[in-house]
Amino acid sequence: MPLLEIEDLHVEFPTQGSVMRAVDGVSLSVEEGEVLGIVGESGSGKSVTMMALMGLIAFPGRVRAKTLRFAGHDLLGIADSQRRRLVGKDMAMIFQEPTTSLNPCFTIGWQLVETLRLHSPLDAASAKRRAIELLEQVGIPAAHTRLNDYPHQMSGGMNQRVMIAMAISCNPRLLIADEPTTALDVTVQAQILDLLRSLQEERGMALVLITHNMGVVSEMAKRVAVMYAGQVVEQGPVAHLFEQPQHPYTEALLAALPERGPVGQRLATIPGVVPGVFDRPEGCLFAPRCAYATQHCTTARPLLRQWPPGEVRCHYPMSDLDRQVAIERDKPVQMGVNA
């Protein structure tokens, strides 16, 4: 049984006269010790998927799924007290913005000690010693003197290290890193990613890495799920996905990487934006932006299907030998931004 199992997850937010489907039928699994990358543009539902797992979707948001299970625990029917024992201990999350995730009214030492005492039987002195050890482990110099610092007295990179220390403090079996290098300079980004990689390898914990950076995924993950407009459109081994992407959206994301662009020319872009509440297509959600869209794409919603060695949600996977014939048969269209 996988450590984490998500099947047909939906997260909806009611709006005036409509419903915003932030997550629309997502299915994912993570094995013990595995590193899974989740990529996609802003608004693809990456963060909301994991926040639903952590029980952080506030009213009036609605969460439903066929299966939402972690380490044998059914998270759909679990009591709040049981969830609190899991979240922060066996299942932890590093959020995008450390400066807004840390409480500005308390020192980082107080916040670390509080986390330790909440999930372990340590007394105050032992928890303080453990907090110093954790800060040293994540590379904060003179850790014993930084316990009395407030978040605003530390840099963005240091605050992110504090967040990582808090997340790993109780040796979680699953760590979710939600764009952990956002707003950090390139040098600090590399340090944070190296730190996460070494911690994952040393502790053997599963890691879900949420990012919009395909380069980060290629370095960190073994398997990747590509999300678009609340759906998983492709997933499979990283090496195969980078060599032979099966979904046009994945192909477009990879084409936008600077190292893949022609020298001296503009980088490739994806026209248009992720659909919102009122412009959600009837058929394939990517059809208005897809260079290969047909009349069939505009009316029929593709299902996520097995396409070895992974899965793809497309009527015409890129490696399908008959795809060009099928596209011509189903009448190619020039839609919206592709007109």
Report on the architecture of this protein.
By secondary structure, the protein is an alpha/beta fold. 34% of the residues lie in helices and 22% in strands. It has 13 helices and 13 strands. Strands 7-8-9-3-10-11-13-12 form an 8-stranded mixed beta sheet, sandwiched between helices. Strands 1, 2, 4, 5 and 6 form a 5-stranded antiparallel beta sheet that branches. A hairpin with a 2-residue loop joins β12 and β13. The radius of gyration is 22 Å and the shape is globular. The termini are far apart. The model has no long low-confidence stretch (mean pLDDT 91).
Write the layout of secondary structure elements.
Elements: E1 4-15, E2 18-30, E3 35-39, H1 46-54, E4 62-64, E5 67-70, E6 73-74, H2 80-86, E7 91-94, H3 98-101, H4 108-119, H5 124-137, H6 143-146, H7 156-168, E8 174-178, H8 186-203, E9 206-211, H9 214-220, E10 223-228, E11 231-237, H10 238-243, H11 248-255, H12 295-299, E12 305-307, E13 310-312, H13 323-329
Parallel strand pairs: 3-9, 3-10, 7-8, 8-9
Antiparallel strand pairs: 1-2, 1-4, 1-5, 5-6, 10-11, 11-13, 12-13
Helix pairs in contact: 4-5, 5-7, 7-8
